[in-house]
Amino acid sequence: MSRSLGPVQIITAASSDPEMLTVKAARMLEGAGAVVFDDPALGPLARLADEAVVLQVAPWDDIPGLVAALAREGLTVVRLASQADAAGVACEADALRAVGIPVGSVVAGAPCAPQPHRAHSWLDLAFPPLFAAAV
Predict the structure, then answer these.
(1) How many Å apart are CA 3 and CA 113, to the nearest integer?
(2) Where are the domains of the chain?
(3) The overall pTM is greater than 0.70
(4) By C-alpha distance, which of 44, 17, 41, 27 is closest to 78?
(5) SS3 assignment for 34-62
(6) CA-CA distance, 81 to 67, in Å (whole number)?
(7) What share of the chain is helix, strand, coil (3-state, %, to 5)?
(8) Where are the bilayer-spanning segments (predicted)?
């Protein structure tokens, strides 16, 4: 009898502060069977998955291979990645899909930092393409 493949969910996190997690990311961690992360700063977030197997790996390890092996065991796997490594996360997701592992959504673990507000002049509002670079 073959096991069903566990889904892989990916959370990108900009902060290791558990209080900064989005509700969706927190729920994904709570339902995880395994959590894989490589950035030591994300350890506090990984520990939110109480019942999960938590694995910290080195960035040069075969992370997609490890995640695929866990998914083949039927575990719901959460790949916890640094938000700074968006290109690497996309490559990992593509590698998993290429070997038949279902990849769910890529979820931002924490909202983006607020951007400083810049007061608009009437020229910005009337002629944005002309004056946006000059301000």
Answers:
(1) 41
(2) 8-112
(3) yes
(4) 27
(5) EEEECCHHHHHHHCCCCCCEEEECCCCCC
(6) 13
(7) 40, 20, 40
(8) none
Name 5's Cβ contacts closer than 8 Å, sequence gap at least 6.
Answer: 71, 72, 74, 100, 101, 102
Is residue 11 within 8 Å of residue 85, measured between CB atoms? no
Q: What are phi and psi of 12, to 5 degrees?
A: -100, 130
The pLDDT of residue 135 is 46
Q: Which residue has the higher pLDDT, 104 or 114?
A: 104
The CATH code for residues 8-112 is: 3.40.1010.10
- Share above pLDDT 90 across residues of the chain, in percent, rounded to a whole number: 35
Amino acid at 5: L
**pLDDT tens-digit profile of 48-77?**
888 899 999 988 788 999 999 999 999 999
Is the predicted pLDDT of residue 115 greater than 90, yes or no?
no
More confident residue, 131 or 22: 22
Beta bridge partners of 55: 36
DSSP-derived letter for residue 32 is -
